Amino acid sequence: MEQDAAALQQVDEENELKAIAMRPKSSTGTSFLLPVEADIDTSPYASPLLTIHLADGPPLSIHKRLLDKCPNLSSACRNSTILHLANVPSSAGHVLTHYLFTGVYECLKPRTQCHKTNAAEFATAIRVYEVALEYELLELASLAGDEIEKLGARLPVLQLFDVLKDTLPNHSIDDMRLQSYLKLLFAPSSTTLSCC
Predict the structure, then answer these.
(1) What is the mean pLDDT of each run of 10 residues along the chain (196 residues)?
(2) Dihedrals phi, psi of 3, to nearest 5 degrees
């Protein structure tokens, strides 16, 4: 039975490595094709392009009409074709932009060594979760929360705390889902959360 569990885990890890290999290396050059039968008048791709400036990296572009999914982002650039998200790093900006295009959570291909990949992607998931809550993108917050739980399970506790401290240095953890997740990790001690 232990061999079956180990074999399943190995298959899961191999599938995940294949999925990671399929990710783009950067947000530049990534395009999404408009279906041939799409109605041009109602297509979000027929709307003006919006340039998103992030904390780092090159600006990203998205069709302005895709922001209809997110009134809070849309109102931030109501009469402009530029959106400044100075507190959002490019790794989280890619996930946000990809989500607005496709409804799917996708990170860029990790640039770090294998043993640091989970920590980097965990940090990105935390940032995406925070941005999704800030702009009330509840489905994206749920997807990011799932990533947090999946990736956090792979990290040693001390590394998890280091990533949280680096990712959210000036924030209290007041989100219920994140609090519940941390409580599950560190139960029954409630003092662990206060040190975070």
Answers:
(1) 69 67 56 42 74 94 86 84 92 94 89 76 92 92 92 86 80 65 60 45
(2) -65, -40
